[in-house]
Amino acid sequence: MSKASDKCDGNAKPRPASLSSWSSLLGSCCGSTSQDHIGLGHDHSDADLLKRHSKSYGTIDAEPLPLPSSFIASQTWIASMHSSTSLAATAASKVPQAARGFLEFVNASPSPFHAVAEARRRLDAAGFTALKERECWDGKLVPGGKYYFTRNASSVIAFVVGQKFKPGNGFSMVAAHTDSPCLKLKPVSGKTKNGYLMVGVQTYGGGLWHTWFDRDLGVAGRVIVNGKEHKLVKIDEPILRIPTLAIHLDRAVNDGFTFNKENHLIPVLASVAEAELNAPAAPKVEGAKHHSILLAMLAEKLGANVDATAINDVELCLFDTTPAVIGGALSEYVFAPRCDNLVMSYTGLSALLNHAADAEAVANDEAVALVALFDNEEVGSLSAYGADSHFLESALRRVTSGVATDAHGRSSSAFEEAMQKSYLVSADMAHALHPNHAEKHEDLHQPRMNKGVVIKHNANQRYATTAPTSALLRAAAQRAGVPLQEFVVRNDSPCGSTIGPILSGKLGLRTIDVGNPQLSMHSIREQAGTKDIEEAILLFTAVFKHCAQIDKELIVD
Length: 557
Hints:
By secondary structure, the protein is an alpha/beta fold. It is built from 15 helices and 22 strands.
């Protein structure tokens, strides 16, 4: 510009000396505060502000003084915030209802006992009949009926008998597990250490134990009262915490966080001093194996009729009291504890409930649709109520022989015939590709969250998948209209296993291993896809509805 044009009109205000004065000058120009000028107070457009600014301060060669880039950036940021807020709200509205249903399920299930109790609640609401293993089932099972029974209150089997079922017909099954890695109270848990009341715990399963530090922990499980009453209990309040050591006292901690599971993984319950001040509220229980204050809190949760001295034995685990939520900027993830394996327990159970509600499907079904949810998978399944027991076999035999039908005579080989006509889906969570550790996955097998259920393969029989069982599932997926993914572990990496090979080997069942992809497996808090939950339910529902017919079209032996 020329020197002449540098001069302002005599009536104009002097040009600001620096950009730092733009806030105050724009404020006087627009009659606004410093907050107003960035759009927090008044709803002015950029053009309106530009017009006011030109009028107040004059022009140079008919050009307005340029607005500072910081001001323009602030306006762009505000606009983007409005846009992103709207985008997030739209995304949240599209979250599958099935994913929200899972939040309710997992929040109600801090222990395997609670998971089974929640499953029972849903089965009861759907009109299923509760059975007891210690009773005779003769005359109780009929075609079209729906039933369930539990073992140890931590495992459950539920099934729907097809209207066209006859002894010797097969079973369409989904199996998952109710347990997850956690910290469990030791039989004698009361510790006192350096002025603190501590709670002794033992590790259950292969958890990422470092994720349990600095968490707000509650307690849940079951107790035996007066030697005869079995009661579930849950303390939602954050009564326990495992503190980390300050970095000032461990300068090398960021080079590798190491700890001793026996010495350092001990939760703090209370201070000794405060506990003594509150002694009247939590009187000492002579000979107690656990702190009196903990027993008093358990008794309070159990109800007014339960005294702390009446609590004989406990099976309690710790859990993160932070509820499960829908997460991610676009609400595409579930951030929750125990995704492994309550996601698959929930989807399998939900699919069975869907099948039971489909009168036409049940009326045309020649098989039995069954869901089995086992405890103790995380520690090998070898228990009276784990997959490596006769729990499922017992159920299959009793159903095969116990359903009252019009069939004349029963084959002595009805059970063996049924097993060869049956199909089992072993459902356990799978490893999604980790964005920061992509090298841990085989190049051509990189499952993604929200891209479908994963079929797991392993040549060494760590998974039970075969070509025929894959083909059966693909046919069901096609009918359901859902995608599938593939996973195989790298040759230089170890491979975990599931209940699939166990059940396949014990019963001679055609079995496939599948699971929804997730991140942070075995952390105290994990991540899974919302869409995958819905699609797993659709897939398993299709297995129950179509598997018996698909099986007739693919005969290997």
